[in-house]
Amino acid sequence: MSSVFVKQVGDGSSTRFWLDVWLGNSALKEAFPRLFLLETNSFCSISERCLGLNGPHQFNWAWRRDVRSGLEQTQLNSLVVLLKDFSPSVEADY
Question: Which branch of life, at top level (predicted)?
Fold first, then answer.
């Protein structure tokens, strides 16, 4: 099984969640444009959005407003599924 992660991100503190290419073939802002428009901090790091090391996934979303049903909810569900195998490590970023 091949990994969808294209960059080692260590603890995620120096990789931008939406703007850097670290998951898949493009930046998440391109894959999930409706969610990116809802983001309050487009320069946020992975560690600011994906919390918890080696435990259950917790996401710290910072939306301008609640995610609406339809396309926004579909994109959020797809993003969460994509992130289900992500686990930040305590190692430094590469």
Answer: Eukaryota
